[in-house]
Amino acid sequence: MTTRRTSLQAYLLSAPALVIVALLFLFPSIYNVILSLQEISPFQGPGDGEWTGLGNFEYVFGNPEFWSIARNTVFWLTALTVLLRIVFGLALAVALHSPVLRRWKVRGLARTLVLIPWMVPQVVAIASWRWLLDGSSGVLNQVLVGSGLTDSGVAFLAQTSTVWWSIVAIIVWRELPFVVMVLLAGLQSIPDEQYEAASLDGAGGIRAFRSITLPNLRPVLTVVVLVTVIQTFNNFVYVWLTTGGGPGTYTAVLATELYSMAFFANKLGAGAAIGLVMTMIMAVFAVLYMRATRTEDQ
Amino acid sequence: MKTSRFIAAAAVGALAATLAACGGEGSEPDDGVVHLTFRQFDPADQIQGLVEAVDAWNADNPDIQIELETLTPNNPQQFAREANSGSGPDIAHLALADVAFLAEPNILLPLEDLMAEQPLDDADSLLATEMTVLDETTWAIPWTADTMAMVYRDDVLADAGVTETPSDWPELLDVAGRITDASGGEVSGFCFAAGAQQQAAQWFAINYYMWNNDFQLIENNGGDWSVGATQDQLAGAIDYFNSYFTEGITPTSMQAITDYADPSVAAGLGDGTCAMTFMPPAAFRAVQEQVDAELLTAPMPGGLDDGSTHLGGRALGINANTEHPDEAWQVVQYLLSAETFETYDQYPASASTLTQLDVDPAEQGFVDQLPHSVPFVRYIGAPITIASLQELVNQQFSAVYSGQADSATAAQAIIDAIERELQG
Description:
The structure holds 2 protein chains of 2 kinds. Chain A is mainly alpha-helical.
């Protein structure tokens, strides 16, 4: 009797959360699947679409540009920016964790400064960077031309040799603080005794980093990598506001393609199909993330 | 135990209350006053005159109050989502090209009955009705009209010995080249937003060029759509615009911008490093205020040839969900009147109202060109949307500017993509 009452209470207590999950996550996911199997425009109401089976997927995969767009998403937008964030983030976290900063009493200031890019809204950051990189009046070009490094301004966002690197720079600059802060928290959780013992055994800084810091940080690194991959893979704003996918379609990614398909071509179903493909790819990472966090908990 | 039961009940109750609140429709105050929402999408800095016109209406009509709502940029899909769920503004500001999309699912109220009860003044002189009357049903009323005209610095042209603006496209290339050469490369003879993005302004110039050369992207052959240009014609158009970059007339940085009034264009006009460009009236006025130099307008190359330029603009539609169609129609009539345009700084989409306006001499280029402009109706109703055509064309032209493709390849890519869409 008591057990039954307890379980009823448990259900009642968890009901709001379950309802919210169903409304906010389950229903949109199911509706996205339904849309991906329909021909429907954004101007039509729910239920007004025509069933097309896998037609939208055939249409999406039949686009000759699809694979280059997918490659951009996987390599430039996601893999490269995550790798750079991890490398620079780890370096910065180690620097911020160093006793030197504490001795000079600037640790708090340094950490605050590192956080600044993350405080800037994405749209503002992109607008500022576009202004910095402007091919004619940009600050960076004024420095380059003024110092004699180039004769005329470089159109960073208009030429294929520089455009992706520009986007990567913007993403890394804006998103680096998150990685730094998480890794810094990880570094702070490593007991000092381990470093002291290593020091007594004659281990230098590099050896201590390889044998103590990295193994201790591995669980945190795993989580950071997975979270940033998921965050970045789905990101629409950086490419859309910086280049709109140009020049040509050189910087188009799956998220921008989804938007174009759904809201320019009015093919909501095809947009949903791209969204579903993206979701499935990210689901793999989500599973890996859950495994990683479970391992960490254990 | 009691506490946890109480918490559970409270949590469920709070959730139920929240969900109930989400589902509710706002009710109008029961004061006998009809409150209408008019949603418009032009930037707030361009609608001061409209705000004044709405205020004047509200002062004169205490029983019918308009709430002006600004939602920029244009987002017809959002209006559709709201209307499909039974809500949305009573009166909607619509791009002419969007009327057909909103008419098809009956989101807009057909206006025949209202027009029969309270006829419009000068209905016969409305421009661009082919964009708002579909299958003999009027879904919206053309409200404002615009087009792209050449915007130039007379003094900069004079410095290069140029006394008249170019009258055709080859002459534009020639004159722009002479201006750049005469300045030793300091001045761009012709600057334009050549970005790959869907909304990049080059789309308009590209179409003007095509239409003036008697071809277009798609053709409607009695309901059967086909590609309206050959590969050679498209490649020629791409080569033409690419010449501005290869000959150093237009800075490469223009390939990264989308807006006709981008700060770099405005700054160029201001400091004289941009001699000619093109933009619509609202953008022209905004740039005029920004720069400390005299700007003039002239028709685009070929702009005085009928059908070589586009008649853009806005229409007013009434939401099919409105509870006050008669009052909404009264407001629409007021917005269409000369009274509104006394303060609202736009060209009316009515030939008769247009003739009643005092136009700034600097804007003569728009006024001269408007009677020869035609709407994008030639692309309406096709299986491929105008927005998709915009994106496709801007991307492929951009691909050539940036050296990713040659003009023949890009032209074929445009044709292939259009054919793919036309086949469904």
